[in-house]
Write a structure and sequence with these properties.
Layout: E1 2-7, E2 20-21, H1 25-33, E3 39-44, H2 52-63, E4 67-71, H3 77-90, E5 95-99, H4 101-105, E6 120-122, H5 127-139, E7 149-153, E8 156-159, E9 187-188, E10 191-196, E11 199-200, H6 211-215, E12 220-221, H7 224-236, E13 241-244, H8 253-265, E14 272-277, H9 279-296, E15 298-306, H10 310-316, E16 323-326, E17 329-333, H11 335-344, E18 348-354, H12 362-375, E19 378-382, H13 391-398, H14 424-440, H15 443-449, H16 451-465, H17 471-474, H18 480-494
Parallel strand pairs: 1-3, 1-4, 4-5, 5-6, 10-13, 13-14, 14-15, 15-18, 18-19
Antiparallel strand pairs: 2-9, 6-7, 7-8, 9-10, 11-12, 16-17
Helix pairs in contact: 1-5, 2-3, 8-9, 9-11, 12-14, 15-16
């Protein structure tokens, strides 16, 4: 069969497209795990945001898919349904499957047969479910024995039991098939980038997290041999930067140290690696872990700071993963010590913070913004967003703080909830006003790493960061809120991909 797998064009607005465009690793993993006689094409539509319709029309014409699969996050739901409608117009008899966080956690949003109708919902981990689905379609048999699947029969949907999460060590999930990609342009700061995973899952219970709602609290790992083979495959295809997408790779620090050594031993430490990490793990093990990370090629550490105020960490259920320990006892917040280890070892901190929590005041939001301005290298500051089935969502709804139900704006940088003391618009304004100047501070570091890229693309980078602003704004001749209003209108227009 011919299979076309699409990721949505909707993206987070933290960085301009010229700076970073990451591939969707889930789709190449699906492609690597179907039976080899199928002809699979993978297209990340984030690479063609200005020509989505034309690209989908071309791909359907060229690949003549029997099955189209879409990977969807909550803020991409509206776009996904438009793309499904387009695909149906182009090829009425095509089978449509959806998967990813949003269909897994809100399958009811995809069972409405009046609009954007789908045939299948692949819930949870998709590799084995999707493989078995293609087999059932090909053999023209039923779907009741395929765990983790919802399927349409007439005007009704039927749901099979959930599929247990995969232990990963048994080799059942094969390597991704990057050769199935039909679009190109994955970059980060001028270097070709790819994604790999070494583990899945997390045992913490952060209130904002969709992962534990999707797969439970667990942690499973791939063998180092498989991870090194995955990295080498990405490298052989041109990647010189790799983002490790693990949910929480530092849950097992000894294993992570072993992985760093395996990367060094394999001679793959000339790649720029980016990884997500807990502050507590870096703070409590940084003396040995941080130098090893740098030797292995790690350049950016996405640090899950979440918030620097204890009350906010309590709401986010993130206190324990941000706790520094000394002699087995709690010794305060781990953030500053973690940042210090990262900086001393010539790595950069991408600071993940969440502001605008239920009891936040203007002062508490500003405290976090000032901290970010002082200590982190690249801000990744978001507003709490009520994604399907997360504990955070229930509390916000119970307290009547959700003020925006337009899911296309659930992108993390649009404030869709208010606090008990601050309006959503004010919280977003405070973040926007402060964050854009923080981003400029990293330009010298980016220039040292790739001067030609920065010289060539600086106008686009500044233009994206300061869109909505004007000369009058910079000279203090107009209220910054006018620039903010223009930014919001630009952001609204950017979401119209199709």
């Amino acid at each position: 069969m011919n299979v076309l797998l699409l990721s949505m064009p909707d993206s987070f607005e933290h960085m301009p497209s010229v700076v970073i465009r990451m591939p969707n690793g889930a789709l190449t993993s699906l492609a690597g795990n179907v039976d080899p006689h199928h002809r699979v094409a993978v297209a990340d539509l984030v690479l063609v945001q200005d020509r989505v319709r034309e690209t989908v029309e071309r791909l359907v014409a060229e690949h003549k898919p029997d099955v189209v699969g879409l990977s969807v996050m909550t803020f991409q739901r509206k776009t996904a349904k438009k793309i499904i409608d387009l695909v149906r117009q182009l090829k009425p008899n095509v089978r449509v499957a959806v998967g990813g966080y949003d269909p897994s956690l809100a399958p009811e949003a995809y069972t409405d047969t009046s609009h954007g109708v789908v045939d299948f919902i692949v819930r949870g981990e998709g590799e084995i479910t999707f493989r078995d689905l293609l087999r059932a379609i090909e053999e023209e048999r039923g779907f009741d024995d395929i765990a983790g699947l919802s399927y349409r029969s007439g005007d009704r949907f039927y749901h099979t039991p959930d599929r247990p999460v995969n232990g990963l060590e048994n080799g059942e999930i094969k390597l991704p098939n990057r050769g199935a990609r039909v679009l190109e342009g994955y970059t980060i700061l001028g270097r070709q980038v790819d994604v790999i995973e070494t583990s899945r899952g997390c045992t913490f219970d952060c209130s904002f997290c969709s992962i534990i709602e999707m797969r439970g609290r667990n942690f499973f790992t791939y063998s180092f041999d498989r991870v090194i083979a995955d990295i080498r495959d990405a490298y052989d295809r041109g990647a010189r930067a790799i983002f490790i997408v693990d949910d929480n790779i530092v849950l097992n620090v000894k294993r992570f140290e072993g992985l760093c050594r395996a990367i060094i031993d394999a001679g793959l430490n000339d790649i720029d690696y980016t990884v997500q990490a807990m502050t507590s793990a870096i703070a409590n093990h940084g003396e040995t872990l941080a130098p090893l990370m740098r030797k292995a090629g790690f350049r950016y550490v996405f640090l899950g700071i979440e918030n620097i105020l204890e009350d906010d960490l309590t709401f986010l259920k993130a206190s324990s993963k941000n706790t520094q320990r000394e002699n087995g006892h709690k010794a305060g917040n781990a953030t500053l010590k973690a940042i210090d280890y990262i900086h001393k070892n010539k790595m950069y901190v991408v600071g993940g913070l969440i502001v605008g929590n239920p009891d936040d005041t203007s002062e508490s939001i500003q405290t976090n913004l000032e901290f970010a301005k002082k200590y982190i290298d690249w801000p990744y500051i978001q507003h709490p967003t009520p994604y399907p089935r997360t504990p955070m969502t229930k509390e916000f709804r119970d307290r009547g703080l959700i003020i925006n139900e337009r899911l296309e704006e659930y992108d993390g940088t649009t404030a869709v909830v208010k606090t008990e003391h601050v309006s959503a618009e004010e919280a977003e304004y405070m973040r926007w006003k402060s964050e854009r100047w923080m981003k400029v501070r990293h330009i010298p570091a980016a220039f040292r790493h790739n001067p030609m890229f920065v010289l060539k693309n600086a106008p686009k980078m500044f233009g994206h960061t300061f869109r909505g602003s004007s000369i009058k704004n910079f000279l203090g001749l107009e209220d910054e809120r006018e620039a903010f209003a223009r930014y919001r209108e630009i952001r609204k227009a950017e979401r119209a991909y199709i």
